[in-house]
Amino acid sequence: MSEEVAIRLPEATEATALLDLLEQLQRESDTFVLADAADRMTVAQEADQLRQIQHSSRHLLLVASLGTELIGVCSISPTTQGHVGELGVAVAQAYWHQGIGTALVDEALYWAETASTLDAVGLTVQTRNVAAVKLYEKLGFERTNMPMETVTTADGEQVTAVQMVFSIQQSDDQ
């Protein structure tokens, strides 16, 4: 690649491109499922949400871009536990195995440690997604004591998954 991949906050003007990327990611991966996939946001709603996220200490949305093309996304959203954020990450299939997912997650964890009010970041990962499990472990996530669970893929398949958590080390000056 002659251009470098940038990991950055998306602009509200990229709402259409982001919605298109999210649809593409759902088609390309059976491990990426949007919680509200049936209720696609309008471009205006997405743009408004992007503006709100930029001012939050509990929400994060990052994109990976190659020039003007969005090729990956990573989010941290608060859970019902309040002090724990849920991580989600996906990269366009043409860019798999190039370190983009790692860079997205690494940047999200840096934000969680330095700019968020979260105590931990958790995720649910399908056990068959061995590469993802290894990535999360390499970045400092640990499996929780929660029993394995069954999740439903976008295709309706039932697969086992495990919960993992990254504990945020609070510094004395925070």
TrEMBL record:
InterPro entries: Acyl_CoA_acyltransferase (IPR016181), GNAT_dom (IPR000182). Pfam families: Acetyltransf_1 (PF00583). One of its GO terms (molecular function) is acyltransferase activity. The keyword Transmembrane does not apply. The keyword Nuclease does not apply. Residues 7-169 form the N-acetyltransferase domain. Its EC number is 2.3.-.-. Keywords: Acyltransferase, Transferase. It is an enzyme of class 2 (transferase). This is GNAT family N-acetyltransferase. It comes from Levilactobacillus tangyuanensis. The lineage of its organism: Bacteria, Bacillati, Bacillota, Bacilli, Lactobacillales.
